[in-house]
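Hi U.,

Before I forget, here's the chain from the pilot set. I'm dumping it here mostly so it's searchable later in email.
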Amino acid sequence: MHQVPDERLALVIIPTYNESENIASIVERVLKASPSVHVLVVDDGSPDGTGEIAERLSEADDRIQVMHRAEKNGLGAAYLAGFASGMAQGYKLLVEMDADGSHPPERLPALISAVVDDSGGRVGGSIGSRWVRGGSVVNWPRTRQLISRGGSWYARTMLGLPIRDVTAGYRVYRSEVLEQILADSVESRGYCFQIDLTRRAVGAGYQLVEVPIEFREREAGESKMSGGIVVEAMLRVTQWGFARLFRRDTFAR
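Structure:
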């Protein structure tokens, strides 16, 4: 088990399913950009050998860990397993990052600094944001941008959230914040998982700082996004929004 001597030391959790073309590159970029961080690859039984590649990386570098899960069970479940492992090992900062290269590891130092350099003590996490000044997307069709912007606007409006990129998946959280907001069970998956954590953190009184990033569409492998994931997210947001309206939601403000 890794020793965690520094409150700035982060565990970067990278869920994978059939990311054999991307995993070595993204791990290399993470460790080059932030040599002091550790990486946890959470592989959901990828049949393309992603888990085996991750194991070879781990054998060559003790900053890299691998968690093998038996089946594909959703992004949210993979992150929850990674959070639990990181907190058990004593990491103070836990990072969410996609395996496909869309989240630039080169922005990780800025995301970490936004959290640990907080003097007021209420910054619970940071978000790599596409939709704040300085943020951008590359190689996305107009329709995809509209869906992402529209989804963030709808969630922000329904849930009263002061976040521009509510659905963003590139994040840093303090471990004590996650411990608090995950005290109640989380059943949401994928696209919806990020919205759920956002509303929980804001509802608990924490600030999430948005750091601009350049988001790039993957160049290799297949996207895991689907229409069903988007529909699930919008239905849950509507449910949470009405619960907030009638003050039946623990995390409502």
